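Predict both folds.
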Amino acid sequence: MKSENCVFCKIAKGEIKQEKIMESNNFFATFDIHPNAKGHTLVISKKHFVTLLDIPNKLGNEMLEFSKKVASYLMDNKYGDGFNLIMNNLAVAGQMVMHAHIHVVPRKEDDGLRFLTKV
């Protein structure tokens, strides 16, 4: 997908209105519109990259630091007692929007969520 058709690029540019709960020069965080748990947040690069492999190392380090701030915000605001960081890379791994992003999913004990488990 080209960046001009990318929903996350349109949000980053302000072409689509979406509440941002946190923002830096290179990233923003917004609640997922199809959350797995209350407070499920996406950390999204303002620049268009498709997967983790496309993100320059310096920006990747910054993305992790920003994700930590988002996770701390969610924990401080009692969305969960723990959290998962999840990044799906390409369709076979579950990536639905072809723009690199990290899911920060707050967790509570006995919430019934299971990730990467075989039934």
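Second protein follows, with its predicted structure tokens after the sequence.
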Amino acid sequence: MTKAFLSLGSNLGDRIINLHHAIELISNRGISTIGVSSFYETEPWGYKGQPPFINAALEVEVALNARELLSTLKSIELEMGREESPRWGPRLIDIDIIFFGNEIVSYPELTIPHPLMHKRLFVLEPLVEIAPDFIHPLFNKNIKTLLEELNEKHYKH
């Protein structure tokens, strides 16, 4: 079994119900949920002209490999009604793999650790709640430190 961390977000429809539904579908796929963060309302990132998001982090254990987990998560997004949208645009549900154990993965369709996670408060704030001491395998820093560094950058401007 591999421990993985996921980031969930929704800014269309009933955002809280969407996240609860996604977590339920993940559990129904044989993925064990170990921890769920609080839900955070956050401003959109990258594409501002859209409603605010509700975001959460999920700690899971899987018997799948990283590509199989990605495929499972994408099928859940489609099952929930996610449609193609502009990059960083509005979405009913978005489920990203942030970490997959300590693995470093680089495929055309999947990069782990998530390459932008350390720049996103909406990923780090929920993640620090459930895994403050998890060490980023490339940066060799824990989640709490990454959040502190991002907050320092964010508030200096």
